[in-house]
Design goal:
Elements (H helix, E strand, L loop, with lengths): L13 H40 L5 H9 L3 H14 L4 H16 L4 H19 L7 H13 L6 H13 L5 H13 L3 H14 L4 H13 L3 H14 L3 H17 L3 H14 L4 H13 L3 H14 L4 H8 L3
Helix pairs in contact: 2-3, 3-4, 4-5, 4-6, 5-6, 6-7, 7-8, 8-9, 8-10, 9-10, 10-11, 10-12, 11-12, 12-13, 13-14, 14-15, 15-16
């Protein structure tokens, strides 16, 4: 029987069927290999092209940017480097440093908070690596970044600034930040201890002295608070700061029953700032405590005439005498 026999066609031939099946499978395998090789070549060429066009920034270049206070250049250089090595602690730390200082220069509150978040994320990510460089400096910046996040983060401020001090990195404002954070967190004794340390590192600063006086007053250390407030008042030329000193002294004098001295402080405030509604309000409190309701109500009415929204004076006037 020949191949053209009606009883045994090419289509029905089992051998030819198997041959055709093998050819199809072989072709599919070859096609898969070709596609895979082509894709690999394209990927290699793409990565090569990217490496040729991406900026190569050395650590020394980043340090040069940092020394020149070009924080935006530091940030951009770190971004480029982190695309290649996303877990490199050196770049993460300087990314965090630059984000912090760029945040300090932001006038927009939302943008400032975004920068602080960026600083915290980058630095904490870097510190996961036990061999991360500049660990002491990094915890110092991290603590300050948390301070600018607000009162809810004051415990973190204390934690990281204490770490930086333990690691041997101490700056004058380390103690100031610690003192303010402890005060905001309600840790009064701790705050006072930090303030004393800060004053020893930075003597003669009226702002710092007044802050220490306020902390001592809050803790009930009135004698120390009075001494510090007087020192701040005598050492400042800033009228607003002097007014704050006088208000604190007035509060301390009133609390100890030294009404004449308190009145003298409020008079001094009014002489410098006749539009101080608070000075009139506190004078009214002294007159009321001294048994002179007429003068007290007159002082409170004066406070409201200056500041119609003065809630405390309005409340006093609404009380029955």
């Amino acid at each position: 029987m020949n191949d053209y026999s009606q009883g045994y066609s090419h289509i029905a031939d089992p051998y030819l069927k198997q041959l055709r099946r093998r050819r199809v499978i072989t072709g599919a395998i070859v096609l898969t290999i070709i596609v895979g090789v082509t894709f690999s070549v394209i990927l290699i060429l793409t990565n090569f092209a990217a490496s040729r066009t991406s900026p190569r920034v050395t650590q020394q270049e980043i340090l040069d940017f940092w020394i020149s206070n070009d924080y935006q250049a530091v940030s951009s250089a770190c971004d480029a480097s982190l695309e290649v090595t996303p877990l490199e602690p050196f770049y993460l730390i300087f990314k965090g440093f630059s984000a912090f200082y760029l945040g300090l220069s932001e006038s927009d509150g939302e943008k400032r908070m975004s920068r602080m978040d960026e600083a915290i994320f980058s630095i904490r990510k870097a510190l996961i690596d036990e061999k991360a460089p500049l660990r002491a400096e990094a915890t110092y910046v991290l603590g300050k970044a948390y301070y600018h996040k607000g009162q809810d983060y004051y415990n973190e401020v204390i934690e990281y600034l204490e770490q930086s001090l333990t690691l041997g990195y101490s700056r004058t404002d380390s103690w100031e930040y610690l003192a303010l954070a402890a005060h905001g967190a309600g840790l009064m004794d701790q705050s006072i201890a930090y303030f004393e340390k800060a004053l020893s590192k930075k003597p003669g600063s009226p702002e710092l002295i007044l802050a220490a006086a306020t902390a001592n007053a809050a803790a009930g250390n009135n004698a120390r608070a009075e001494s510090l407030a007087l020192e701040a008042l005598l050492s400042t030329t800033d009228e607003y700061l002097a007014e704050r000193c006088s208000f604190l002294l007035g509060d301390l004098y009133r609390a100890s029953g030294r009404n004449e001295e308190a009145l003298a402080r409020y008079e001094a405030i009014k002489n410098k700032n006749p539009q101080s509604a608070d000075a009139w309000y506190y004078e009214g409190l002294i007159f009321s405590q001294s048994g002179d309701p007429i003068r007290a109500r007159a002082a409170w009415r004066k406070a409201i005439s200056i500041d119609p929204m003065h809630a405390s004076a309005r409340l006093k006037l609404s009380e029955r005498s």
